[in-house]
Please model this.
Amino acid sequence: MDQFAAIQKLINEICADHDACSRDFIGLENVEMINLKKKSISSVFSKDEGLHTPEPTFLTLIQQYLNVLNQRILHMEYDYDYRHWDLRNRVKHRDSIINKLFDYRYVRQELGGVPLNKCMNDLLGFRIKIDGFDHTSEEVNEFLEELRQSEYKIVCNNSSKGEYSGTHIYLCGNNNFFPWELQIWNPNDEQKNTDSHKDHKSKREYIKWPQQYNN
Model:
């Protein structure tokens, strides 16, 4: 099996898990799911004593989904099956999610005027490291274009910027599903990518705000 066929196999497996998990979540009796493409970031913020903050109902929805993911991830075996790529997965922490919401609402130039699925697109994330992976090669570009034509909605791009180098693949399904993310790194970029990620987190201005929602 060539490299791209193996990546496609992994993506197909994650897509199947994503679809099943998302449908199970939406089917829960106490879950009121929303259309993540039609709803903008600003639409889930409400004014509280002069400050626009995420609505409690939306934070409840996020927490419900995190609870499902934390249970689901216990039964996943991707890290073993794809250990040759040092596969790692993680569920995004609640405080990081709230930081990201504030960042999209107040720091980015759109000021919250983007769909929720553009922001809440990595609540479950996977990362693999492939020797010799060239994010700018013609072969990679052709592979990403094939993914974009998949029946299962997938968004993918070369997300390299500054000191960071990575290809990001978002498994979306439909507009009522929280997307999952797969990052592809070249092992040679690991240290600078890690440093870049730490620097990015340190620059977020709202690091203290999540403390308001810890209860």
